[in-house]
Design goal:
The chain is mainly alpha-helical. The chain has 4 helices and no strands. The protein has one domain. InterPro entries: HepT-like (IPR008201), HepT_RNase_toxin (IPR051813).
Length: 75
């Protein structure tokens, strides 16, 4: 559920900043981070637990570090 909330929040943030904020941090796959929300919300019968685990283990740490960097940059 947290991945759904994160994806939804990123979509909103991207919309509110006209796509400029996320684009300034290209290390993160923002399209994938936002898209996982749609997959988990609408295609829940197709969710592969191993892929979700991989995302949480390998992708979320970079996302978290980047969000903290964004927060620091914005003051």
């Amino acid at each position: 559920m947290m991945l759904i909330a994160v994806g939804e929040s990123l979509k909103y943030l991207d919309k509110m900043t006209q796509g400029k904020l996320l684009a300034a941090y290209p290390d993160v796959d923002w399209k994938g981070a936002k898209g996982i929300r749609d997959i988990m919300s609408h295609h829940y019968f197709d969710i592969d637990a191993e892929i979700v685990f991989w995302v949480c283990q390998d992708k979320v740490p970079l996302l978290v570090r980047t969000v903290f960097r964004m927060q620091a940059d914005l003051g």
